[in-house]
Amino acid sequence: RLELARLWENIATAAARGESDTASDLGLHRVIMRRADNRFIVTMLDAVYALAVRHADEGYATEKVSEDLAQHAAIVRAPLTADGPAARAALVAHVERTAARMGSVPRWRT
């Protein structure tokens, strides 16, 4: 829980500056996914973050930072309250939105 709270604080601090902290973002997802014991999800996360690194030079619009902050708040809140289904739903929604923003189409629902 301490690691999750620390990463969340890093993300929120960067967002307050209008920036994105990709390392803390990835770390936050990894902390949560360590408990999932699902290699597919971890591999998918690696692919999404490879896209994020590729698009990092494009900068971060204020709307994107605000949207990411709200999504991360939901992701952090669920495990801290021991709500596994909410954590899963928040992660899936966030990864799908992030992938779509980068031009990728997640196919696990089709």
Characterise the protein shown here.
- The protein has helices at residues 2-16, 22-34, 39-55, 62-80, 84-101.
- The protein starts with a helix and ends in a 9-residue tail after the last helix.
- Helix content is 75%, strand content 0%.
- It is mainly α.
- The mean pLDDT is 78.
- It is built from 5 helices and no strands.
How does the SSE layout of this entry go?
Elements: H1 2-16, H2 22-34, H3 39-55, H4 62-80, H5 84-101
| Helix proportion | over 70%
- Main beta-sheet strand count, sense and barrel state: none
Which structural class do you get from the secondary structure elements? mainly alpha
> Hey, roughly how much beta strand do the residues contain?
under 5%
- Supply the number of helical segments: 5
List keywords for this structure.
globular, single chain, mainly alpha, 110 residues, 5 helices
Can you give me a brief rundown of this structure?
The chain has 110 residues and is mainly α.
